[in-house]
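Researcher: For the annotation table, I need structure tokens for ATP-binding cassette domain-containing protein. Please keep the output clean. Sequence:
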Amino acid sequence: MMVLDGLEAKAGDFRLGPIDLKLPSGASHALLGPSGAGKSTLLKLLLGLEPPSAGEIRFRGEEISRTPVEARGFGYLPQHLALFPHLDVEANLRYGLRARGLHGEAYEKHLQRLI
């Protein structure tokens, strides 16, 4: 289950929230709204691409609001190809290999082939 408790984001004149929401595990959810309503901002908060200005996000009982994006284990396919901008090329490659479950010798072999 994912729980949003008083989650807020502020950027200039834009303000999102506070949002209080419980999303049960094992269910599909849709985020709908007009352009500028905050859908992309909310996704960025959930993924860790932007920090919240207030509130917290709990996933499976663990508070993750300040957990780095690469440590959350969430997947996201943006409209345009994007990497983690705060990571260098090698760190982005390492993240992708770990996300695919590669470890040990197979991990190092694939990493060296990509570099």
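Researcher: And a one-line annotation?
Model: The chain has two domains: 2-76, 83-115.
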